[in-house]
Amino acid sequence: MMRTGLLILVLMFAAAASAIAMKPVRIAPDADRVDYESLIPRGFGTWSMLPADVTSVINPQQQEVLDRIYSQIISRAYRDSQTGSVVMLAIAYGEEQSKQSQVHFPEVCYPAQGFQIAKSAKDELTIQEDVIPVTRLVATLDARHEPITYWIRLGKRVVRGNLEQKIATVQEGLAGRVSDGLLFRVSSIENDTAKAYRLHDRFAADLLQAIAPDSRRLLIGGEVRPQ
Amino acid sequence: MILARRTGQPDWRNRLLIWLPVITGLIVLYLPSLMDLFRGIWSTDQQAHGPIVLVIACWLIYRKWPEMWRVSEGRSTAAAVGWPIFIFGLILYIIGRSQEILIFEIGSVIWLLAGILLLLRGSAALKAQWFPLFFMLFMIPLPGAVVDAVTMPMKMAVSYVAENILFWADYPIARTGVILQIGQYKLLVADACAGLHTLFTLEALGLLYLNIIRHDSLVRNVTLAILIVPISFTANVIRVIVLTLITYHFGDEAGQGFLHGFAGMVLFLSALLLIIAVDSLLQLSIGIINTSSRTS
């Protein structure tokens, strides 16, 4: 009986120690910090950036959450000179993807502001040789009908859905790493959902082709290929 | 008297020697987890029932301790089952603690305790303590994915029902998603009103009530446990309606001020009354069925 008790104690100590030892550590050095603001061009192809929208309402509580989760947020609107359509681009980057500070899904952010998510579907976006698993949403608020296309990069891969995000975080974590995360979201106010998605696809393709392949990896993941 | 003390003393010391390593181990494993919980998720509105469940579970184990000791006295221990369960609990703990998977980290305590009971006192002891261990399930924080997936539909349903009842009662009410508009006021139905947290607290309290009352009828126990789900929904609808009406009649400040806390009390009172009413109804109907089957 005594021996059993002591063995239990030793095993519990060992478990406590290994849990501490297996905690992943952040390795991303601040030296190669990327400035996403300058990475994304202000004009490319037929697209040009619109002056910042200064009328947006500031919600202090929301701002606090955003500052805690993301280290960089880009929010811009671009106009297409061909069709005159406007798309909104949001990129949110978080250095450390852990439970408390992981990239939030638009499925959560939009309803938090009173929107309803009318539709949600999985899709794939093919840009040159890259296939990006994206999610398509339609958010509505009163008469506003806003189709959304987004993807989330976690470390070197794009994850779709909460569970995939968690699994990827844990896989990286078990390997002792804390990866970074990035949300790439394109949306437009447009009643024709299919047309909006085609616009989003073209915008994303034009943008990715306008930036260097190395920088492209920062947006859609994958290995950096030797030149 | 003297005799009792003589035999009692070494026995008491023996017991302590057996349990001291277990208690030390549990403190080393779970004190950091508890501190994280209190600093994090347990300090939020949604999971505030966690500490209550923990305290009640400890009390339940303590209450059952003498009985457990008595029934397991002289029985053989179950090392063959105990070790795998214990080791599994430890693995869950290691993965959960290092990778921040709370459902593993906190869930592991149930496996560990079950394994330890089997190893030190045998299966009779585990059988005696099954309810406290089961009760600890309510202490495990729900994974964020589940909360996110369930909260929104529940909020929608609560706002939908509240709107329809108030509309039927001739109030000037309209709804967009989870935003209720009554008169000149716009109310956003918050996450807390979804009732996930209330559901958990009520289900835990309901089971506790059933365990302490010790109903003899299994049907009544199970039915009541299931009925707590719609009861908690109803209680949440009542809370939203009460808050909406307070805002409408007494203004925004009243709705957000001390009367907000009052609405929380209304929630628990109405839930409690509903549980007692349903329980009495069940008792009555089971009684009727029993007498009619006896006469026929």
Index terms:
heterodimer, A: 227 residues, alpha+beta, nine-stranded antiparallel β-sheet, two-stranded parallel sheet, 7 helices, 11 strands, 32% strand, elongated, B: 296 residues, mainly alpha, three-stranded antiparallel β-sheet, 11 helices, 79% helix, disordered N terminus
Description:
The complex is a heterodimer of chains A (227) and B (296). Chain A is elongated. Chain A contains seven helices and eleven strands. In chain A, strands 2, 3, 4, 5, 6, 7, 8, 9 and 11 form a nine-stranded antiparallel β-sheet that branches. In chain A, strands 1-10 form a two-stranded parallel ribbon. By secondary structure, chain A is of the alpha+beta class. Chain A has helices at 2-21, 36-39, 60-69, 106-112, 162-174, 193-210, 213-220; strands at 25-26, 43-44, 47-49, 72-80, 86-94, 116-127, 130-141, 144-154, 157-159, 177-178, 181-187. In chain B, 79% of the residues lie in helices and 4% in strands. Chain B is built from eleven helices and three strands; from the N terminus they run H-H-H-H-H-H-H-E-E-E-H-H-H-H. A three-stranded antiparallel β-sheet of chain B has the order 1-2-3. In chain B, a hairpin with a 2-residue loop joins strand 1 (173-176) and strand 2 (179-182). In chain B, helix 1 runs antiparallel to helix 4, helix 3 (79-99) packs antiparallel against helix 4 (102-121) and helix 7 packs across helix 9. Chain B is globular. Chain B starts with a helix and ends with a helix. Mean pLDDT of chain B is 82; it is low at 1-8. The A-B interface holds A 1-2, 4-6, 8-9, 11-16, 18-24, 98-100, 105, 107-108, 111, 114-116, 141-142, 162-163, 166, 169-170, 173-174 and B 17-22, 24-26, 28-29, 40, 77, 79, 86-87, 90, 93-95, 97-102, 112, 116, 119-120, 143-145, 148-149, 152, 176-179, 188.
